[in-house]
Write a structure and sequence with these properties.
The protein is an alpha+beta fold and 165 residues long. It has 4 helices and 8 strands. The chain has helices at 31-37, 42-52, 105-121, 135-143; strands spanning 6-7, 11-15, 63-71, 77-86, 89-96, 125-130, 147-153, 156-162. Residues 14-164 form the N-acetyltransferase domain.
Length: 165
C-alpha cells in the first residue's frame, strides 16, 4: 500500500521509512518505548522501521501503517504515529520525542490520522491501549475523541473512538 502525507493543523504526517530512525532516535531515551518497540539501539530501530515499510503483517492479515510526525514548515521530526488496520477497525499508537510533548501535536496528529483512516480506508472503530499511569497519553486520546472502555489489554486500558458513515 502506498501511503500519502497527511496534513494536520500543527504538523504533517509523512510515511515512515527506515532512515527516519535517525531523526526519531530520541524515542530510545525511554525504557517503556524501547520495550514497546522491541529495540535497544538506533540500528535496531532502523531495522524495525525497515520491516514496517512492507505495510503488512508477516501473515498478511493486518495492514501496518506508520508515519513520522514532522513540523510543517521546517520538517523537523516531532514523533511518530501508527495504525494497525484489520477490516473496519484499527489500533493506533503514538509517541512524541520528549522535547516535543505538551504542545498538542500528538492530539492533532491522532485526529488527522483518525480522519484519514476513516476517509481513505473506511475504518469505523479505533482503539488505543493506554496505561493508567500515562496521564499525558490519556489526555492525547481524550483530545482526539477517544473514550475509556471497561476492557483491558494486559496492564493497559482500551480506549475507543467510533466513527459513523
Amino acid at each position: 500500500m502506498n501511503l500519502e502525507d497527511i496534513p494536520s493543523e500543527r504538523a504533517v504526517l509523512i510515511p515512515l521509512r527506515a532512515e527516519d530512525a535517525d531523526d526519531l532516535a530520541g524515542l530510545l531515551e525511554e525504557q517503556q518505548l524501547r520495550e514497546w518497540l522491541s529495540v535497544e539501539d538506533l540500528d535496531a530501530l532502523r531495522a524495525r522501521f525497515a520491516r514496517w515499510e512492507s505495510r503488512r503483517s508477516p501473515d498478511g492479515a493486518e495492514t501496518w501503517l506508520n508515519w513520522v510526525v514532522r513540523e510543517s514548515r521546517e520538517g523537523r521530526a516531532l514523533g511518530w504515529v501508527q495504525a494497525t488496520v484489520f477490516g473496519e477497525s484499527a489500533s493506533v499508537a503514538y509517541a512524541l520525542l520528549p522535547a516535543e510533548r505538551g504542545a498538542g501535536v500528538a492530539s492533532d496528529a491522532l485526529r488527522a490520522l483518525t480522519r484519514w483512516l476513516h476517509d481513505r480506508l473506511g475504518v469505523k472503530t479505533l482503539t488505543a491501549e493506554i496505561d493508567d499511569a500515562n496521564a499525558p497519553s490519556v489526555r492525547v486520546a481524550v483530545a482526539a475523541g477517544f473514550e475509556r472502555t471497561a476492557r483491558r489489554a494486559g496492564d493497559e486500558v482500551v480506549w475507543e473512538r467510533r466513527l459513523s458513515h
